[in-house]
Design a protein that fits this description.
- There is one protein chain.
- The protein is α/β, with parallel strands linked by helices.
- The protein folds into two domains: 137 residues, Rossmann fold (3-Layer(aba) Sandwich), CATH 3.40.50; 152 residues, Reverse transcriptase/Diguanylate cyclase domain (Alpha-Beta Plaits).
- Helix content is 47%, strand content 22%.
- A five-stranded parallel β-sheet has the order 2-1-3-4-5, sandwiched between helices. Strands 7-8-6-11-12 form a five-stranded mixed β-sheet, sandwiched between helices. Strands 9-10 form a two-stranded antiparallel sheet.
- The protein is elongated, with a radius of gyration of 29 Å.
């Protein structure tokens, strides 16, 4: 469950109704959503459902100890970090070291002081907030590493990762998969005549049009320069040329007002398909075939779609 930086899920695991109520009163005016469990098994079930930021558990539970609960929680490394506080009675205080070694972050002695509980959870909040900030920063960095900065489209790395998964699906289920390379015709002339800012406008327009014409089940991206890629699935061989030609015609019909002139730009496309014989196929080989078809489209006069 995703949580905002100002709200927190807190799971209380204690078989004592009295202590569950006391904890509830402590956090009644705080930015926490509380859930309660009476046993270790119930606690783990709620933990798996809610992924709480905080777990406050009694050391002694009806089915197993807080020590074992800590161990089970810490085994799952796929979830965001949870701050665990173990509550012990005075005579159980010797178990604190065991709890910390099992993965607990802090402890409280029963009967607990409400202000101390809030303070100890507050320490955990600072750590949880830092973990959230780090996770968000990591996600932004991962997204940036897979995104073309000019157009906002996926870059080659992202396309290859997505296409590799789709090719495995095509291999299992036998559906067609197409790799389409698109390259702007005479793009260097646009840059030389009107400047790179004008060239960027053309690139971004092409990218926007490509994105609008790409189904949610497919993917498009920029490989670099004026070369773009589209990976399409579940289109029969008799329809793929018409599909790409519609896009080609839509782009060539656009007019770019550059330096007081009305400029039309065209694009050429090379298409390679993965049809019935999928054995031993890989994305790089398909990309090379599409590149050969693109070269033929360029040699054939540009503003063409060439299918292998």
């Amino acid at each position: 469950m995703s949580q905002s930086s100002s709200h927190y899920e807190l799971l209380v695991v204690d078989d004592s109704a009295v202590y569950r109520k006391l904890v509830e009163q402590v956090f009644s005016s705080q930015p926490y959503t509380l859930s309660f469990a009476c046993s270790g098994d119930e606690g783990m079930k709620l933990f798996n459902e809610r992924s709480p930021s905080f777990v406050i558990t009694d050391w002694m539970l009806p089915d197993f100890s807080g020590f074992e609960l800590c161990q089970r929680i810490r085994k799952d490394l796929s979830r965001p970090y949870s701050w665990i506080i173990v509550m012990t009675s005075s005579r159980e205080k010797g178990h604190v070291v065991q709890a910390l070694e099992a993965g607990a972050d802090d402890y409280l002695t029963k009967p607990f002081d409400p202000e101390e509980m809030l303070a100890r959870v507050g320490v955990g909040r600072r750590i949880i907030d830092l973990n959230r900030e780090l996770a968000a920063k990591t996600l932004r960095m991962e997204e940036a590493a897979r995104t073309d900065p000019l157009t906002g489209l996926p870059n080659r790395r992202a396309i290859e990762e997505w296409a590799s998964r789709q090719m495995r699906g095509a291999d299992r289920h036998g559906f067609p998969l197409w790799v389409i390379l698109g390259d702007l015709d005479n793009f260097k002339q646009i840059n030389d005549t009107f400047g790179h800012d004008a060239g960027d406008i053309v690139l971004k327009t092409f990218a926007d049009l490509l994105k609008r014409n790409t189904r949610a089940s497919d993917i498009c991206g920029r490989l670099g320069g004026d070369e773009f890629i589209l990976v399409v699935t579940h289109v029969e061989p008799g329809n793929i040329a018409a599909t790409i030609n519609r896009f080609r015609e839509s782009f060539s019909a656009l007019s770019f007002p550059l330096h007081g002139q009305s400029v039309h730009v065209t694009a050429s496309f090379g298409v390679a398909g993965l049809l019935t014989d999928h054995e031993g196929a890989d994305f790089s080989a398909l990309l090379q075939k599409a590149d050969k078809m693109l070269y033929q489209a360029k040699r054939g006069g540009r503003n063409l779609v060439q299918v292998s």
